[in-house]
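step=encode ok
step=design start
structure_in=
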């Protein structure tokens, strides 16, 4: 792939995705959204990829939408924004639907579309000095980036309203307490901790981990009976895989499992 705003490489079963607009605070613009969608498609269809680690160059994970570029668009702003949001939302949808775990490493600050993007990952590692804010209404606009879906589910409706209407800033510790972040690490360990977590997932029972993710996301939006039916089908399918049988055998035989990811 020919990418300018993102660095992408695959190593040992992990797709390493790194936002690469540090001079622009890794802000979201149409080019970034197109490239992020392309990267998500690549991850979806690459069987060698078992998990993804997503980090960012510079001091900011993502400052949100590129307001300078938006301002320069003049009367063409609505069309530019529509084009950008279509690709951004398609990228997030692909990430969510792909049965592979995605881990984000958030260093520095994150706001606006960057905040929405962070909320859409399966797991989030944050640096201890990271800051989180919605910031949309401060600029006179409304949320995008699927935050109304993911962020509201992670932290609850009332807290979502608080962040959106008041532009309250959360510390990393508060973000962890609210359920937006899974774990907080020293700032200089964000990249390594994110990569290590993604690698541990890739080295595990990848089919089971990826489809367990699908079971959880499906269940939260389904009636009880449908959630149970999907769970039943998926666990039965898991028992047809090498790792499903190996994991059960290893437990019974009291030994470490030899997972292959299949």
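sequence_out=
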């Amino acid at each position: 792939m020919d990418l300018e705003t993102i660095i992408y490489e695959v190593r040992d079963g992990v797709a390493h995705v790194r936002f690469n607009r540090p001079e622009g605070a890794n802000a979201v613009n149409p080019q970034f959204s197109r490239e992020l969608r392309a990267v998500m498609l690549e991850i979806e269809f690459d069987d060698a990829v078992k998990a993804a680690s997503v980090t960012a160059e510079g001091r900011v994970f993502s400052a949100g939408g590129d307001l300078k570029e938006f301002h320069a668009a003049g009367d063409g702003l609505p069309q530019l924004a529509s084009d950008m949001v279509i690709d951004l939302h398609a990228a997030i949808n692909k990430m969510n639907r792909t049965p592979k775990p995605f881990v984000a490493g958030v260093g520095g600050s994150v706001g606006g579309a960057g905040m929405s993007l962070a909320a859409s990952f399966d797991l989030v590692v944050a640096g201890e000095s990271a800051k989180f804010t919605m910031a949309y209404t401060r600029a006179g606009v409304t949320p995008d980036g699927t935050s109304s879906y993911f962020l509201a589910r992670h932290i609850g409706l009332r807290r979502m309203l608080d962040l959106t209407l008041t532009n309250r800033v959360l510390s990393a510790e508060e973000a962890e307490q609210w359920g937006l972040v899974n774990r907080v690490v020293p700032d200089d360990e964000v990249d390594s901790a994110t990569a290590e977590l993604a690698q541990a997932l890739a080295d595990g029972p990848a089919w089971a981990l990826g489809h367990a993710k699908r079971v959880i996301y499906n269940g939260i939006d389904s009636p009880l009976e449908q959630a149970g039916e999907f769970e039943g089908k998926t666990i039965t399918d898991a028992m047809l895989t090498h790792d499903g049988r190996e994991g059960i055998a290893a437990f019974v035989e009291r030994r470490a499992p030899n997972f292959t990811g299949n």
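step=design ok
step=annotate ok -> The mean pLDDT is 96.
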